Amino acid sequence: MANYYTRRQYILQILLYYICINSPLVTSIVNSSFPSLLLECFKLVEEELDSIKQSIEKSKILNNNPNNPTSGNSINSIHSLETIKSINYRRDSLFKEYQLLGELLSGYVLNHSLKLQDFQNFLSHFSSFQPDDIFILAYMPSMFQYLSSLTTLPENDVKAIHKQFMTDLQQPDKLAETPIKALLILVFLTNFIDWCKVDDSTSTTNRTKQYEFTKNVDEPMRQTFNLGSMEQFLSICADTSLMGTGELFYNFRPFLQQHIPKFVATRLLDIDDVATSELKRALQQQQQQNRLNGTATANTPSQVDKIYVSNFKFSLDDQFIDFCAPIFSNFVHSFITNSAFILTYLRDMEEDLLLSGEDFDFDLGNLSENAELERFYVAMFYLYSSREQLASEFWSDTNSTSYGFLQWASRCNSPLIISTFCLTLSALATGSTNAIHTFNFLQITNAMSENNSNTTSTSNNKSLINKYSSVIPLH
Q1: What is the pLDDT of residue 444?
Q2: What is the DSSP code string of 138-180?
Q3: Residue 346: which domain range?
Q4: Is 82 a member of any domain?
Q5: Are residues 377 and 454 located together in one domain of the fold?
């Protein structure tokens, strides 16, 4: 069995190599029907994983012993250690295959033209997943690339995508159930700005006049934030980061990611029926007690998350993580370049909210609900930590928009924004050369802080630790 799954992965790796270099050796395979074939492969992996889970559930039922309350409720009580290892190996192999399929799709999008119908088929497929399904991540490199390459698409395709996304935004309650789509809308609109500015001789109309900015770009982008787009981006960057939680002094993620669940490999795990039943029973008892006391109940038994058996750690493959990083970084630079108006709006809105409050802790609770700029900074922290080459792009040209963004971000009234921006700077200091650039940048801002108390500097940031020590988890 091991050789079977290993050979499958080798075949995908070889095909991935030739697709990414756009080799003529695979032109007979990589044609217009290739995306449809990939989608079927994705579905086959999902079906095989479902069949494994179903077989385990059947084993629970067949092995259930009414005289033994723990019998049949856990995979550990049904199968031998060797069988469990075999099941975990199959699942882990299929998970790696799924990520390789995601890389194949991304390689195809990079060098070939993905049809609009194929894009819609993939979008419809993974949008049906649960919001916490980690398998969604396999589609993100290709989707980011596709929506970032609008100038290479037929004009009518771009217009159709815009129309589709605007329709989706008119149903916010439904869209809120799929925050990953809200993020993709943000990616699209970020690049749609550039597309509208392009002087395309084949275009029949002036795009900037056809698409009124406020109605077709500004307001929809703000709406995606309300639907969790930046919180979703933070979650993706955190789960594809090289930085472990244990390496953090202050962990801002639980504070800033409160509405969107973290990604979990639920397709690869089995439910612990005993532990789940015990938790539901405890909640039922608490609910009854609260009713007697006349107090509200936070969760009902029906709202309880399932508890899964954890006998193997499934994680994203290092190759897939490295594959994603530069693609997500390209989005960050595009967002900085094209969405300065949004960044300014987010900062001004939070500063106004901060100035209108009197109690810091009260303001902090309110700010966390709309802390989109902080989510962007923390996402950047996860993305650029321990990635020296990507971080160097911010320092390579002091006249670039990216460097100008750092200068702009260093001037702020909000201590929460400044704190998270300092995290971003720490990530951009990865490597000796980047560290020197960061040091020089801080020297400049320290000099500026003598005349501006709102500039990021060592002296101005000392008080932040005391302010946040009671509300941010300390590691």
Answers
A1: 87
A2: GGHHHHHHHHT-GGGS-HHHHHHHHHHHHHHHT-HHHHTT-HH
A3: 237-260+316-468
A4: no
A5: yes
Same domain, 279 and 371: no
CA dihedral (82, 85, 86, 92) in degrees, to 10, reads 180
**In this structure, is residue 283 part of a structural domain?**
yes
pLDDT at 336 over 90: yes
As a whole number, mean pLDDT of residues 291-307 equals 57
Q: What pLDDT was estimated at residue 14?
A: 94
Residue 280 lies in a domain: yes
Structure tokens at 152: 């290479």
- Does one domain contain both 290 and 429? no
Query: 14-56: per-residue pLDDT in tens?
Result: 999 999 998 888 878 888 899 999 999 999 999 999 999 998 8
Q: Are residues 250 and 399 in the same domain?
A: yes
* pTM to 2 decimal places: 0.87
Residue 422 is assigned to a structural domain of this protein: yes
Please indicate, yes or no, whether residues 347 and 415 belong to a single structural domain of this protein. Answer: yes
**Six token digits for residue 401:** 């928009």
Residues 291 and 352 in one domain: no
Query: CA-CA-CA-CA torsion for 174, 176, 180, 181, nearest 10 degrees?
Result: 40
Q: Tell me: pLDDT of 135 over 90.
A: yes
63, with CB counted inside 10 A (0-12, 13-18, 19+), is: middle
| Cα-to-chain-centroid distance, residue 270 | 24
Task: Provide the pLDDT for residue 94.
Answer: 96
List the one residue out of 240, 282, 279, 233 whose CA is nearest residue 260. Answer: 233
- Is 59 in contact with 270 (CB distance < 8 Å)? no
The partner residues of 266 in beta bridges, in order of sequence, read none
Give percent of the chain with pLDDT exceeding 70: 77
What torsion, rounded to 10 degrees, do the Cα atoms 398, 404, 407, 408 define?
Answer: 180
Give 412-434 pLDDT, tens digit per residue: 878 888 889 999 999 999 999 99
Please give the C-alpha separations between residue 345 and each of 246, 339, 380, in angstroms, as whole numbers. Answer: 33, 10, 19
The Cα–Cα gap between 26 and 9 comes to 17
Same domain, 279 and 413: no
What is the predicted pLDDT for the residue at 459? 52
Half-sphere exposure of 293 (CA within 13 A, CB side): 9
Confidence of residue 179 (pLDDT cuts 50, 70, 90): very high
How many independent structural domains does the chain possess?
3
Structure tokens at 116: 């609009």
